[in-house]
Amino acid sequence: MRNLSLIFLFCLLSSLSHAIELDFCVGDPSLPRGPEGYACKDPAKVTTDDFVYTGFRGEKTPNNVFGNNVTLAFSDVFPAFNGLGISMARLDFAIGGVIPVHSHRTSEVLLLVKGTIIAGFIDTNNTAYYKRLEVGDVMVFPQAMLHFQINVGKTPATAFVSLNGANPALQLTPTSLFAGNLPADIAQQITLLSHEEVRRMKRIFGTA
Amino acid sequence: MRNLSLIFLFCLLSSLSHAIELDFCVGDPSLPRGPEGYACKDPAKVTTDDFVYTGFRGEKTPNNVFGNNVTLAFSDVFPAFNGLGISMARLDFAIGGVIPVHSHRTSEVLLLVKGTIIAGFIDTNNTAYYKRLEVGDVMVFPQAMLHFQINVGKTPATAFVSLNGANPALQLTPTSLFAGNLPADIAQQITLLSHEEVRRMKRIFGTA
Amino acid sequence: MRNLSLIFLFCLLSSLSHAIELDFCVGDPSLPRGPEGYACKDPAKVTTDDFVYTGFRGEKTPNNVFGNNVTLAFSDVFPAFNGLGISMARLDFAIGGVIPVHSHRTSEVLLLVKGTIIAGFIDTNNTAYYKRLEVGDVMVFPQAMLHFQINVGKTPATAFVSLNGANPALQLTPTSLFAGNLPADIAQQITLLSHEEVRRMKRIFGTA
Amino acid sequence: MRNLSLIFLFCLLSSLSHAIELDFCVGDPSLPRGPEGYACKDPAKVTTDDFVYTGFRGEKTPNNVFGNNVTLAFSDVFPAFNGLGISMARLDFAIGGVIPVHSHRTSEVLLLVKGTIIAGFIDTNNTAYYKRLEVGDVMVFPQAMLHFQINVGKTPATAFVSLNGANPALQLTPTSLFAGNLPADIAQQITLLSHEEVRRMKRIFGTA
Amino acid sequence: MRNLSLIFLFCLLSSLSHAIELDFCVGDPSLPRGPEGYACKDPAKVTTDDFVYTGFRGEKTPNNVFGNNVTLAFSDVFPAFNGLGISMARLDFAIGGVIPVHSHRTSEVLLLVKGTIIAGFIDTNNTAYYKRLEVGDVMVFPQAMLHFQINVGKTPATAFVSLNGANPALQLTPTSLFAGNLPADIAQQITLLSHEEVRRMKRIFGTA
Amino acid sequence: MRNLSLIFLFCLLSSLSHAIELDFCVGDPSLPRGPEGYACKDPAKVTTDDFVYTGFRGEKTPNNVFGNNVTLAFSDVFPAFNGLGISMARLDFAIGGVIPVHSHRTSEVLLLVKGTIIAGFIDTNNTAYYKRLEVGDVMVFPQAMLHFQINVGKTPATAFVSLNGANPALQLTPTSLFAGNLPADIAQQITLLSHEEVRRMKRIFGTA
């Protein structure tokens, strides 16, 4: 029987030897990147550690102007996601902290694991859907819709989100408009905000 | 020969008689809708007129607070787009008019046919890419990225855009935040805008 | 200004009044279902509660032969996922409990929130990738690959998984082969398991 | 043990009872159809026979002007293909028979099981790729490219093709131009064919 | 506040520094190409000019046997389209000019900006849908269906088309059959055209 | 006329010269591979032979422990499939031979060309759908579902399968669990099989 199985194994391994490469495509950032993601790391060098991400362990202290700490596990920091169409992020909120209004190329689902937050999204009819969530609650934010989270509890809060893209984009509206190179006069025209408010916002982000 | 071809035609028509139904799926809004679009209108009732949209004809006068007039040819108004993954819109600008910052679920390509505009988008690194366009110029706005257009010429301007979705969503940032039911205090928290500015914006849209 | 904005709003609402329907497509199981999911619930009847799932709250006691308790939040129990291509599940393990070897139509990412487990998957070259995970660790299981989780700690364990499909299928190998209507002789032939072992397995699942 | 497994089964069946519906979506042509295919037949009425197609059995005699007999197994005649993105067809050739130049929405792969044919396709640079095939040979025709098959042997020939769409379209160039309602003068203008040749072709198909 | 925002910015830029790469993937033709398009140009070298195409400016004089001038803006000439699934073309017609019958891998939408044309497509049931269009009219041609345009006015005409693919293929039926390397006898067999007509057509395209 | 057509051809070839590259993307395994497949072989070096696969010719003798001989024509052995989303395999069965229970990332359609087999699949509700097939019969196995084939006739049998992926994965349950590096104790825990049976299975595959 052992001989038979060895023959079988040899036969199987011959025909499958390359097929394995696309069971997964752990990204190799040193190679050219295409529209669908990174080129694949040599499968012979892939180990179990490539499929495990440990960057969510421990405490994450919010330390920015929004009172949040966002830990992204997108395909650039966790290359095992490359080509698989899924990714995650951890959201930590100080008391009163927020994730400002933002959007992604994909849909997102949020799971609250600590604290109490209000989460919501706005649809293209300008209707806002928002609710106070308890620990264990799940909320979904449809693809590309503006959404936000606010810590409304008396303690820090933590949530985990999953997105159905390996590199789903995180576009924060306030920083897009005020923290980069967009001129103040354009920002003003395309938002109807006042000249003074645009300058105040740019000062917050150090670009005035 | 005629007999042969009749036999052939009969044979062909028999085998193809249902296959034609998905060469196209003109939407029928009276039937239940699924995540991929409307159910199909009975193909026997489809005529050439279903495939032609005439709503872009003539003059379009900008008459809103932004100085624009947006004519959407999405699958709800032009049901031939249903299931085909493409749509269009016409943008008319008064002198000084703008299409405020907004995003879609899809990518968009713009063709300027009259006037002079500045068009641009912002990426997730807060970098703005914007440029003055002449008649005949084309600019592409990648999927889900915030983008905008401003008439910077001394005459009205007109552009046509195409999007690679039948119902690609049009989410205007200012109206999402200030023209709907989102409470002022939430709008303030998720944007860092001042209390006064949020109230001013809501007054513009009649929701203060 | 108010008049202008009212005109603008009217103009905007007219053109967008149907477009909103596919910002989301909360499933309506009472309507016919298509290959891409359920037909959409009337958007006028959708409320924030449709987007929030509370079924993961509280304790979940493992009570089956595998020592697990699987709470699926697929589109049939949480219709807001319909059409959005994402879903979740909660996995609770008794001491020594397992999620037996299984697969999905989609990829999956797991987040361990309590206890210590070994998680792993097997690729088409018969190579197993498995590892002991700590609280906070994330592991990804590529699309369609057989995978499993085992509680190897001295306490119960809990994990949450996300999958990039609204209804991603959960096909457990042991129950597929032994808990349904597959005849024992076929199960034996297609697995090479012994006659006695197949009967023993079918007794476990009450189908002998 | 039996009690435990019954509890387990009950638990499993409860949570999975609706999930089974999209393991497959056998089409029900009596329900409204969407852009992605037919609505699903009630899973409770689906049997093994739904997944087996017997229309390829036996002899198929070519009897049309092209000397072929095409048996399509698309989703309209084999509803199990609905939503699965795959379909088949059987091609029988008389001596000298041809499948005239045609195209599909999808890619196609052909397997020759009897006789000798020349098969080929033309790319968008007007380069034709064609070759004489033996029994057992496989040729692939890339998505949407014009392609054809000619029986060049001294016996009838048979091939089977698979296409990666449930309803991949079969658009025959000669019948598109000459066997339907396209006026002769338009056919002439859009092909550069002579007036006389267009009339000759329309006579072949009984539409002159 | 400035310190806070600097900390925030540093934190944000760190976590996002690579994520920006797939907001867009401007094609780099000097790198290996994959099935989904070109590899991405180094994002650090991308400027606004990469997103603007000026090749549609000015007059385009029809000068070929069909009386047309087709200016393609596919991803090879406008690499910003790479990976975004959209493209454009400009069609200029001499008086009496035509775009001969052709097809694409994708769907197409046409906007007439000058003159009067008849545009149409043929479905797989050999039904032609065609209509006289006025300036401003839009017509859609479903994926892979044969279609055509004819200038029927007394002046030159111009139209712009958009297609939902970055490289959607343009396969002209007459040149596919007669302007390349397809032998005359095969062209004759797969079309039922006469020997003389095939030779006449090949003479038109210089391949007799 | 010849001059005109030469001018036309020059014009056409100029504008299309790169567009041809993605009519097909024959894989080049010497270049880096991405999640969507291999990079494309230089189109200038592609010939008709690249599109024809001859590996299914002749007799195939089953010689392994399962009594089968599986000849895979996936994109690694037939690179023309690269990027086209389709592939094939030939299945030869000795008398009594089986293709053991297995799954793919894609759907599969089987055509029986010799002998008599029982083919079937199991859905996520543990319901098995299986049937005795005659020559010419077709059976479809939905995406990712466990399925199998058994030669139940008195002669060898042969079938061809097509799958809607270029590299659709072949994951055999018995070899996944027992022929690779998965430790015996894990295999036992995740299947509920007995310690003795796991060891017997591993001996069959030479891994005990």
General description of the model:
6 copies of one chain form a homohexamer. In chain A, helix 3 packs across helix 4. Chain A has a 5-stranded antiparallel β-sheet, with no helix packed on it. Chain A has 208 residues and is of the alpha+beta class. Chain A has 2 domains: 33-169, Jelly Rolls, CATH 2.60.120; 176-205, no CATH class. Chain A has 4 helices and 13 strands. Chain A starts with a helix and ends with a helix. The interface between A and C is large, with 56 and 56 residues.
Overview in brief:
Chain A has 208 residues and is of the alpha+beta class.
Question: Tags for this entry?
Answer:
alpha+beta; Jelly Rolls; 2 domains; 208 residues; 13 strands; globular; homohexamer; 4 helices
**Residue fraction in strands of chain A:** 25-35%
Oligomer: homohexamer
Mean pLDDT value of chain A = 90
In percent, how helical is the residue content of chain A? 10-25%
Strand order of the largest sheet of chain A: 4-5-12-7-10
Order of helices and strands of chain A: HEEEEEEEEEEEEEHHH
Structural class of chain A: alpha+beta
The largest sheet of chain A is: 5 strands, antiparallel
Give the number of domains of chain A: 2
Assign the CATH topology of the largest domain in chain A: Jelly Rolls
Largest interface: A-C, 56 and 56 residues
> So, CATH architecture of the largest domain in chain A?
Sandwich
Specify the overall morphology of chain A. Answer: globular
What is the number of helices of chain A? 4
Radius of gyration of chain A, in angstroms, nearest whole number: 22 Å
| End-to-end Cα distance of chain A | 78 Å
> What's the CATH class of the largest domain in chain A, please?
Mainly Beta
CATH superfamily of the largest domain in chain A: Jelly Rolls
In the predicted model, the low-confidence regions of chain A spanning at least 5 consecutive residues are 1-21
The tally of strands of chain A reads 13
